[in-house]
User: Fold this.
Amino acid sequence: MQPLTREQILALIHRDPEAAAQLIEALFAELQRLRERVQALEDQLAQNSENSHKPPSSDGLKKRPRSVSLRQKTGKKRGGQEGHSGTTLRPIENPDRIEIHRVERCEHCDSSLAKVPVTQHEKRQVFDLPPRLIEVTEHQAEIKICPRCQESTRAPFPQGVTHPAQYGTRMQAAAVYLLNQQLLPYERTTELFRDLLGQPIAVGTLANWQQLSAEKLAPLEQKTKEQLVTAEVLHLDETGMRVSNKLHWLHTVSTAERTFYYTHPKRGQEAMDEMGILPQFQGTAVHDFWKPYQRFSCAHAFCNVHLLRELKFVDEQHQQAWAKDMSALLLATKAKVARNTCRLASSTLQEIERQYHRILQKGFRANPPPLGDPHRRGRKKRSKSRNLLERLRTHAQEILAFAHDFKIPFDNNQAERDLRMMKVQQKISGTFRSVEGARAFCRIRGFISTCRKQNLNVLNAIESVFLDKPVAGLA
Assistant:
């Protein structure tokens, strides 16, 4: 459209007022569209990991704004709190080796003390690695000739001892531990065995042990799934991962005691159905607002930390006071829950809900429905603030679920913690070479996470798996 001069505009108004009015309406509609476009681009630039769902890795190398924590001050001093259990190195009762340092002469008069009896010892202990960490056990099976029939008989070797030279289950467990708990790549794991133990191990051997442990863990993984199905509260989340240089999705279902991981090419309901947990689950699922979760018939509770980030964005980017008020209400309700042991009084809950809806009304007044173009069909595009308000109104019950039932947490931090190290593994390796390798890692890592949550020694637990023994202490 060519711009009109002032004289052309005045002439159009006198000649055809209706055409002039239509032109002005079209210009206002275009102006509104451009305003919305500029606002959307500004919003996109202003988003970071502290005010949206974006991960910290997306912030890039540019200097981030000074972070403002969403946590409330507790009044406690920094560092370890009084009464906490420390990890200070302390002497043990029965050391492996004792060295006696003898007194030969008096340090004052230089008299000989060689034959003077010892009155006491001052003890100091040094914790260190021995020069050789690996232990080689040779099994010798006796062979005898029967004097009666002249035939030879050999004593049986222990179960699992089948080769002239082989690695033991402790070595296998250590390799699986390094690969899956410490997230060392295969080549660096072989270097560690060579440098620390003096025994290099082939990458192919490590891969075989990885696959063998995954196969042996299949029954335990099934048991974990069965126990998650009957849990009262589950935490759900998902994140992208690379498998064979293609985008797959890593799903987690977890509680404070158990962790389950599953990788799938899809992110939505198809993957969740294939996992086989959510279709049978009847408790409360805690997650973000990802819609496929909401299609399952269980109860739902939403992560309020995600909401706090979005509210922070609306407050800082659009200067809307209702967002700050809603954040304050959610955090104040969380504090009330923390101060109580079983439940909040019904009058307190009613007041929280009244405040919640009053703040929503304030927000809707500040964000009226979009007018849009009357000539365009379809749903009118809403602003981020309006979409957030709609979500807060539609899902008020799920957002405030933590206030009604203390078994339901305020946030979904459990699932996010369970995914964090999986993202670290992706940064180290970049991709899994096969779906089978990715699923083996997920199964082993889920088992390790479960052991750690139940305060079990991970190395001993993995060795029990290789020995085909029950894992001691795994509930």
Q: What stands out?
A: The chain is about 45% helix and 10% strand. The first helix runs from residue 6 to 15.
